[in-house]
Amino acid sequence: MPDARVSNTITGRDAFLRVLSDEGVTKMFGNPGTTELPIMHALSSAPEMGYVLGLQEAVIICMADGYARASGKLVSCNVHVAPGLGNAIGSIYTSLMSGTPMIVTAGQQEQGHGLTEPLLYAPLVPIAQPVVKWATEVSRIEDLPRILRRAAKVATTAPTGPVFISLPGDILNNEAAIDMASATRVDTAVRPSDAALEHLAKRLLSAKKPVILAGHEIATSDAFAEATALAETLGAPVLQQTVAWGAHFPSEHAAYLGALNRDQKYVRRVLSDYDLMFCVGADVLKMSVWSETEPLPETTAVAMVGLRDWEMGKNFPAEIALRADVKETLKALVPLLKKLGGAALADKAKASLAEIATRNWSAQRAARKAKLTQPASEKPLHAEWAMMRLVDKMPKDAILVEEGLTSTTTLFNYFPFRDRNSYFGNVSGGIGWGIAAAIGVQIAHPARRVVAVIGDGSAMYSITALWSAANQKLPVVFIIANNAGYQILKNRLKLFHGNDTPIGMDFNDPPMDIAAIARGFGVAAERVDTATGFDDALDKALAKTDGPSLIEVMIKS
To answer: Which UniProt keywords apply (predicted)?
Structure first.
């Protein structure tokens, strides 16, 4: 019960939790400091708000990001004043890139006390503003519910993303008669006009060789069935967007060719076979390092549908750009294509799918698997063999969380996306997300097994997250690929500069013992460097259901 001391009044801290709960928030991820003690005090009488403790602010945001992305729910994160918010900024940036609906709050010094510039003080709103959709500070207790309601609405309205609220101590500790208001949700599940749909349908039918670029809005709008119906109706091959950070199309479907990468020359070569690229909820050829080569050929036109109009025509002109929900659009588009295309389209699509099946993802996987070997006694392991073997042993409904960079480059040649929640990856490139995000994903899907494949460099950014996994008794299996360095940097140093003598990129003096670190956090862990050892350790980890396991896999660099 609220600890209000006057009839019809409530403290700010209790109002804060009550409004969050009414907005559908059931999980708060946090690391408390003195300015957050009012919230921690209120949590004592609000057990329905499940609190998950993280040991550093960047870890907290990543755990919450994984939870929100996997559950589709609004999530709350509570960090500690200026240094804590500073620790969290890189992770909030990742959540902004992934469009994660998240309310980030930080306790702030009492109004007036901040004027004296006490320990840990800084204006919080300017720190947060570059990486959130909206940032504000509460200056009147009466405004707290209105601000929280607005924050929830902004965070959950497409394009979704994080928001930030600074909570001064006096606001949390004071009490007043407050109008708690009610929740607002903006329905963005809209479809284009009939005229726009017909224009798109006719353009798709007129293309000689269209290709579908599948993006993350297929997952967030729950449009797997509609996307496959589109591919089957057109007989068009499907490629996944260049930054593959979610399960965007069923890998085992006959039309699926695989994911594009971020090599501009390769992408241009692949797309040159097609005269129209239909981007379905996708980032349009997002790249990493600079190249003088443009990834989109001049002969490939672009049509787009999705809710993020900023992406439309941002880098490449879009002949057709429809700001609409992917699922609702495809539900209307597919019947229209069938009507306009008739029997001729059906026959063409059938023949096209039969031809694609000879070179699709499944055919490529079978060919690679047939050639792959790993001698039982050879050590350390080849990364590709370890990835293939891992996929073979994972439960069919397992969820993969991945941040392996170089060690996992071949993983998606073997791991099939079977549903929209089967895979979660890092969208921003800022490392340290994966090991913590896996915890949030497992909390969101307790009935499914989460397997996280993380590189040694990435793991060290957020290794304390292992304690939270043990504390929550989550059955996550962490696979840490240890190649004793920042292999991606060593590769690029050699590729870009011809330098094969890297400085500051190796972890061999002294070598890391990640399994020992994990055991120190209460996680069952072992190190393996042979095929037999890997098989045995993985079987043991998958059989364990009362807490996390970690396998440190020594990988050839």
So the answer is: Thiamine pyrophosphate
